[in-house]
Please model this.
Amino acid sequence: MELVSIKMNLFTPSKKPIGRSCTRDGRPRRVYDRPATPWERLKRLDERDRADGGAGFILPGRRERIETILSGTNPAELVRRVHAIQDQLEDMALPRTRRLEKRLGPDMAYLDRTLARITGVRPEDHNNDTPADTD
Model:
């Protein structure tokens, strides 16, 4: 959980909507700010608040700790560690997943609807008594 939090807050930039405008044909569209990580946004707000005479939002000493984490973390290695933990969780869940699959079996109604949609055949037109094509 801590690794995901570090990845999301320190290394994953996101865009935030800041307003709306209209396209040439009159359709509304959102306007976004430049991508920034949550940490960059918080630092910017903190600096702006301190410049306006406020106490800021970041507690004393916290900024240095976060900057140390940021400078000492390799984002690629962080992602590899998160993926390794996810793989371990999947491996731990695999026996139970297999037991549930055996007990419940596949959802044939859903599978039939999906295959009918892919092939362009309406499910009610599909006759189960018709033998499958053999090529």
